[in-house]
Amino acid sequence: MAMEILVMRGANRADCLRKITEKYGIHFTLGREKVISSRGFFGIGKREEVELEFYVSPQRSAQATLGGAMNKERQVVGLSQSAQFPGDDSTLDFAEAKKKVLAAAGRDPDRIMKAAAQSRREESEGRSEKHALLEKLAKIEQKLESGLEQKHPTLARMEELLRLNDFSDGYSRRLLERARRELPLEILDNFDLAQDRLLEWIGESISTFRIPERAPRKHGERHCARIMIVVGPAGVGKTTTIAKLAAIYGFENISRPRPILSVRVITIDSFRIGAQHQIEGFTKIIEIPVSFIDNHMDLQKEIDLYKEVTDLIIVDTTGRSPKDARGLGEMKQILDACGTKAEVHLALAAGTKTADMTYMMQQFEPFNYCAVLLTKLDETRRVGNVISALAEKDKPVSYVTNGQGVPRDIRKAEVVQFLINLEEFRVDRGALEKRFPSAENDSFQWS
Length: 447
What we know:
With 447 residues, the protein is an alpha/beta fold. Helices cover 46% and strands 15% of the residues. The strands form two sheets. An eight-stranded mixed beta sheet has the order 6-5-7-4-8-9-10-11, with helices on both faces. Helix 13 (354-363) links the parallel strand 8 and strand 9 (371-375). Helix 1 (13-24) runs antiparallel to helix 4 (109-145) and helix 13 runs parallel beside helix 14 (384-393). The longest helix is centred in the first third of the chain and has 37 residues, at 109-145. 29% of the residues are buried. The model is unreliable at 60-92, 253-257 and 440-447 (pLDDT under 50).
């Protein structure tokens, strides 16, 4: 008789074995093992299950047959307790009655009794063996789930590198789980190859904002200006960053000539002492006009007045604490005058802790910002916090500033720029630039 191939699915091999043993006992033979994957979050996160094919051994079938014989025996014995035979007016001795009933049924009582005893012994031994196997599987499963298994040295070094660079625990855990799943032993045994793969995965988690480019308008040509709003908490360097952006797009650099765009700066930062003086000083040096507005109606008039004769309008805002819900709400009401097509960039300092950065990103969500503008990269040694927060909130990064110089200390964000700032990683910049190239119109650099 052909054996039926069965399939059991579980979280891992140990889980499958436990389920098979509980349902079919210990007499089975394993066949093909298959890993089934499904895609999960950032990503970085896949879910895997194991599928085992098996069939039940003949010993299991024999045991089932003997068990059936025992059941039949019990049924016959039950009848014997009340049966009386012809010519006998008294109740028979139980053991003798059982033999006579079995004989009357045409069965060999000695053979059935021996088979039943053998079945009981095998069943008892089977339960003991099954119990021992289940205990062993439970211990293995517990060991795997609690992470007590010995780590491969490469995984331990990866974990240390991620911790050194201030990556969040959740981000690090997802990368390490991916390494356990996807890296074969030959790569794990070569730390340089494993580290290159880890660096590539980090790069894949970084998203950059594609900056819309527009050539200067021709004489008499009319088109709507690009409107760029910079929001963020106080002290992150928004005003200096806006001066850099205005200079980049409106000032021709001798070392790298480029078309000059028509740029105008509007500031609604009328609360901070010295704010108007600061932005006015910057824009005067680079000869870019600036307007000072403090309400929704005037801002809308200013936008309508210049949007068809200017290439780029940059709006500076008041630095607000992410806890100041009322102040953030008032500022958003003013900025709504810029229209729904305006780009909102959230300025955050690179040295901010991951938890604080994530909180700020959450609190500024009502502004519907399209990207994060990272400031003060030169003031921190590690960027894992930034990468972790951006990945968790699924936000791209648009610009990066790394100094106070106007306009040289700003550039459009590139994936490679973050990767080369990771400490103690072996970085092959040429290979990374091939893997993560920048679009030609998405890069500029000032000497």
